[in-house]
Every structure is written in structure tokens, then in C-alpha cells.
């Protein structure tokens, strides 16, 4: 789902794309179908009435008013098709493998490549595409050209975000709970933040015009705020952390004379009892987190 100006664009697993008038949802602007299940819908900046529809093995630029297909980026005449074929054939003849930035250089040994995540960059016409082989491709949509290829080691990218400051950074969250920060000017890794979440880092976002990063995960039900700090070994330090129970809530009660505290408990591999204060996170705390087996 994507909001573009006054238009709400919604995609279904059956490949149906519907554009609604945001102010009048009963008015359908357009509807069409693609031959794949959309994983994401992006609106590149300055692309009037155009959206990028992302699938596991498809990437299409469409006009949401006329429903016309403008360009398919994974076809035989596209650079992404050549990229995927070269990776599958364990060679990369059309790009210099020295341009790979990350833990490992050279072609990856993969049995198949799928597109996992896509994100707009601050640069016009440029999007980041994360693939299942651990590579992140910066693609120029207008020129159909791969600008840079980055790589994370032994993991898959699941979230990407870009800073909008004088220091151009790209943060990538993987399925192991790590966040890797790349410096796009120097084309190297600035920081690797290990195990910041229990598993997949499902959400990443730099705040506008600030080197403040938000990371979130469904696995541990937490949201972290990170501040850039050149004195830190990882270059980022935690400013705030908000977390809920890691399993579904089984019981919840208000307590205290004014009813400003909430006690909640879960029932999973770990027993959790947590105190939430409605007005100030500094007064929250965990009463217990004990591992045991239920019989």
C-alpha cells in the first residue's frame, strides 16, 4: 500500500493493483493486474503518476492513471536480467567485481536469486534493490544502469534506508538481526551493529536531515533509536528503546492509585511480566523473564 499525493495505491497477492482517490475512497481512479504478487510499491521522486511495482522476480514502472506499462526492469534487454543471469552462472562479466563493497568480493554461489526489498534513495532516479544472495544493487531507473553493488555476509537484506545529510549513509537490516551501515561516498562499511534485534530487522529509517536511525523488528516487538557518534566503536549508540512483550499478551491489568501503570504478561518459551508507565518510559521495567518448559 502506498500514498502518492491524493492517491492511495493498493496491491493484492493476486497481482491486482487499485488506485483510489484518497479523499473519496469510493472513487476508483484505476485498476489493473500484474503477473506477479507485489512485495512493495514505490513512488520515485518527480515521477508524476508513476509507481514502481516490486515482485520476487519482477520490477515494473507503471502509470497508475493510464495503467500502461512504461518499462520492465527484469527482461532480456535490461541490466538487472543480465545481473541475475551472471550471478546464477557464477560470473560477472558486465561489471567489475572490484566494485562489490562488503564482507566478500566476487560472484556469489547461489541456486536462485529473488528480490527481497526495494527502497528509494535521496538521489533522483536511483533505487536500492536487496537480493536474496546478500547483494544490494543501486539502480538508475532512467538510464537502466547499475551504479554500485554492495554486499552483506551470510545473510539476506530485509530493510534498507538512506540518510539525508552531508554524510551519505545506507543502512541495511538483515534476517539475523544485524544492521550494516555503508558510507556511499567512500564505498565501504562504516559500521556493523550485531544482534540489535532477535532476528529480522523488519524496519529501518533515518530521520529527515538527521543522523538518527530507527530500527524495528517483529521478532522481539521492539523499536530502537540510534544516534550517530563518531567516538563509538560501532559509530552509533542507543538513544531510546521501546519494547513490548515478545509473545502475545495473555493478561493485562491497570494498577496504582492513579492507574498510570499497566502490568502485562505473556505465555511462551519465556515467562514475561512487564510494567508499562503510560507517561514516561523511564519508569518502565521487567519483573521477570525466566526460561522454563511448560508441561
Please identify, by name, the CATH architecture of the largest domain: 7 Propeller
The name of the CATH topology of the largest domain is: Methylamine Dehydrogenase, Chain H
The shape is: globular
- Overall mean pLDDT score? 85
Series of secondary-structure elements, N-terminal to C-terminal:
EEEEEEEEHEEEEEEEEEEEEEEEEE
Termini separation comes to 43 Å
Please report the number of helical segments: 1
Strand pairing plus helix content: what structural class? mainly beta
Fraction of residues in helices?
A: under 10%
Query: How many DSSP-defined strands?
Result: 25
Description:
The chain has 295 residues and is mostly beta strands. The protein has 3 domains: 1-72, Thrombin, subunit H; 73-243, 7 Propeller (Methylamine Dehydrogenase, Chain H), CATH 2.130.10.10; 249-291. It has 1 helix and 25 strands. It has one helix spanning 79-88, and strands at 2-4, 7-11, 16-21, 28-33, 40-42, 50-54, 59-63, 69-72, 100-102, 115-120, 126-131, 135-140, 145-151, 157-162, 169-174, 179-183, 188-193, 203-206, 212-217, 222-228, 236-243, 249-255, 261-266, 270-277, 285-291. The strands form 6 sheets. The chain has a 5-stranded mixed β-sheet, with no helix packed on it. Strands 1-2-3-4 form a 4-stranded antiparallel β-sheet, with no helix packed on it. Strands 5-6-7-8 form a 4-stranded antiparallel β-sheet, with no helix packed on it. A hairpin with a 5-residue loop joins strand 10 and strand 11. The two termini are 43 Å apart. Mean pLDDT is 85; it is low at 91-99, 103-111 and 290-295.
Amino acid at each position: 500500500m502506498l500514498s502518492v499525493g491524493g492517491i492511495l495505491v493498493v496491491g493484492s497477492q493476486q497481482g491486482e493493483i487499485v488506485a483510489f482517490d484518497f479523499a473519496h475512497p469510493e472513487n476508483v481512479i484505476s485498476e489493473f493486474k500484474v503477473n506477479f504478487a507485489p512485495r512493495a510499491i514505490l513512488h520515485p521522486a518527480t515521477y508524476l503518476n508513476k509507481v514502481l511495482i516490486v515482485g520476487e522476480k519482477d520490477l515494473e514502472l507503471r502509470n497508475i492513471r493510464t495503467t500502461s506499462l512504461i518499462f520492465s526492469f527484469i527482461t532480456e534487454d535490461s541490466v538487472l536480467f543480465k545481473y541475475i543471469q551472471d550471478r546464477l552462472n557464477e560470473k560477472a562479466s558486465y561489471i567489475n567485481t572490484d566494485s562489490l563493497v562488503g564482507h566478500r568480493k566476487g560472484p556469489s554461489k547461489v541456486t536462485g536469486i529473488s528480490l527481497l526489498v526495494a527502497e528509494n534513495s535521496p538521489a533522483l532516479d536511483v533505487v536500492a534493490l536487496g537480493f536474496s544472495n546478500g547483494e544490494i544493487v543501486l539502480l538508475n531507473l532512467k538510464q537502466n544502469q547499475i551504479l554500485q553493488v554492495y554486499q552483506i555476509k551470510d545473510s539476506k537484506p530485509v530493510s534498507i534506508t538512506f540518510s539525508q545529510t552531508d554524510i551519505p549513509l545506507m543502512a541495511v537490516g538483515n534476517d539475523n538481526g544485524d544492521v550494516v551501515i555503508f558510507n556511499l561516498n567512500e564505498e565501504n562499511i562504516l559500521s556493523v551493529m550485531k544482534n540489535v534485534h532477535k532476528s529480522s530487522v523488519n524496519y529501518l529509517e533515518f530521520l529527515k536531515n538527521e543522523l538518527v536511525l530507527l530500527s524495528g523488528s517483529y521478532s522481539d516487538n521492539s523499536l530502537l533509536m540510534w544516534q550517530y557518534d563518531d567516538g563509538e566503536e560501532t559509530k552509533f549508540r542507543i538513544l531510546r528503546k521501546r519494547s513490548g512483550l515478545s509473545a502475545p499478551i495473555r493478561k493485562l491489568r491497570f494498577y496504582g492509585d492513579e492507574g498510570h501503570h499497566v502490568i502485562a504478561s505473556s505465555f511462551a518459551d519465556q515467562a514475561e511480566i512487564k510494567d508499562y508507565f503510560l507517561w514516561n518510559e523511564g519508569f518502565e521495567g521487567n519483573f521477570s523473564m525466566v526460561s522454563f518448559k511448560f508441561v
